[in-house]
Automatic annotation (TrEMBL):
<dbReference type="Pfam" id="PF08924">
    <property type="entry name" value="Rv2525c_GlyHyd-like"/>
</dbReference>
<feature type="signal peptide">
    <location>
        <begin position="1"/>
        <end position="19"/>
    </location>
</feature>
<feature type="domain" description="Rv2525c-like glycoside hydrolase-like">
    <location>
        <begin position="69"/>
        <end position="161"/>
    </location>
</feature>
<keyword id="KW-0732">Signal</keyword>
<protein>
    <submittedName>
        <fullName>Uncharacterized protein DUF1906</fullName>
    </submittedName>
</protein>
<dbReference type="InterPro" id="IPR015020">
    <property type="entry name" value="Rv2525c-like_Glyco_Hydro-like"/>
</dbReference>
<dbReference type="InterPro" id="IPR017853">
    <property type="entry name" value="GH"/>
</dbReference>
C-alpha cells in the first residue's frame, strides 16, 4: 500500500509538471527575415503574426509568411492592430469594431489560418476602457466570432489608480467580455524577470486567467523596469540570441501554456 501511495504521488507530480509546462515566444512589428527563422526557432516556440499593418507602419511585413514560419515549426499568436481612443471619439465605435473584426477574419483566411484560431486585438491604451473603447471591442469580438474564429485581446495587466482603488485593462476586459482570450502585458519587474529567456506560467503576469503573458518589451519602459535594467542591452532593447543586434532582431518576449497559443498551425 505504501508503494502504491508513493507511485500515485509520483504520477500526480509528473502530471502537474506537464500541466504547468510553458513555452517561450516573441512578438515584434518588423518581420525578422526569412534567414533568421532557423536560429529563432532554437529559442522560441511561436511568433506573433500581424494580420494588418502594425502600429506606426504603412505596410504589413508579415503578409505571406505563414508558410515559412509553419515549415520551421513555429506556432502563432495572431494579432490585429486596433484603434486608439482618439480614432473612436464622435464615431459609431460599434460599427467600426464590426468592420475591423470582419477585416481580421478575412486577413486570417487569406493567410491560410484555420477556422477557430484565436485572433487577438491589440488594445494599446491602459486602465479602465472608455465607453467608446468598450463599444469598439464589442463590435470587433462579435464580428470575429461570427466569422468562425475565437476572439482575444492583447491588453495591459498593470494596475492603475482609480478612485480609492486600482484597475488594469485586463481586469476590465475580462469583466465585460469574460469569454475573450487574454494576452496580458506586464513588463514591471517584478513580477517580470525582465529580458530573460525564461518561460513561466502566464498567470505570473498577475492575472490568473491570462493565456499569454508578454513580460518584456523593446525598448524597455524605465518606469517599470528599474529592478531588471541589467537584463536588457545597453540601448534598452531585448534582442534575439544568436543574431546581429538590429531593428529586425529586437523583440518583445512572451510566455504561454501552448506552443501554438492561437491554434494557428
Amino acid at each position: 500500500m505504501r508503494h502504491f501511495a508513493w507511485a500515485l504521488l509520483l504520477l500526480l507530480g509528473v502530471s502537474a509538471a506537464r500541466a504547468q509546462k510553458s513555452y517561450l515566444g516573441f512578438d515584434q512589428n518588423l518581420y525578422p527575415g526569412d534567414a533568421a527563422l532557423t536560429k529563432l526557432h532554437r529559442t522560441f516556440s511561436y511568433a506573433c503574426y500581424w494580420l494588418n499593418n502594425p502600429p506606426q507602419m504603412n505596410t504589413n511585413p508579415w503578409t505571406g509568411k505563414r508558410g515559412l514560419l509553419r515549415a520551421q515549426g513555429f506556432g502563432f499568436l495572431l494579432l490585429f492592430n486596433g484603434r486608439l481612443d482618439a480614432q473612436l471619439k464622435g464615431r459609431d465605435a460599434t460599427t467600426l469594431g464590426g468592420a475591423d473584426g470582419a477585416a481580421a477574419v478575412k486577413a486570417a483566411l487569406d493567410e491560410g489560418f484555420p477556422m477557430r484560431a484565436v485572433i487577438f486585438l491589440d488594445q494599446e491604451e491602459g486602465g479602465r476602457m472608455l465607453p467608446e473603447q468598450a463599444a469598439y471591442l464589442r463590435g470587433w469580438i462579435d464580428a470575429v466570432r461570427r466569422g468562425g474564429f475565437r476572439a482575444g485581446v492583447y491588453c495591459s495587466g498593470i494596475s492603475v489608480p482609480e478612485g480609492d482603488g486600482s484597475i488594469s485593462t485586463a481586469q476590465d476586459v475580462h469583466h465585460q467580455f469574460p469569454k475573450a482570450a487574454l494576452w496580458v502585458a506586464n513588463d514591471a519587474c517584478p513580477p517580470s524577470p525582465g529580458c530573460r529567456l525564461r518561460a513561466a506560467p502566464p498567470a505570473g503576469s498577475g492575472f490568473a486567467g491570462a493565456e499569454v503573458w508578454q513580460f518584456a518589451q523593446s525598448p524597455r519602459r524605465p518606469q517599470y523596469t528599474a529592478a531588471c535594467v541589467k537584463t536588457y542591452s545597453a540601448d534598452g532593447n531585448c534582442y534575439a540570441p544568436g543574431l546581429p543586434q538590429t531593428a529586425q532582431s529586437l523583440l518583445d518576449l512572451d510566455t504561454a501554456a501552448s506552443a501554438d497559443p492561437s491554434a494557428g498551425r
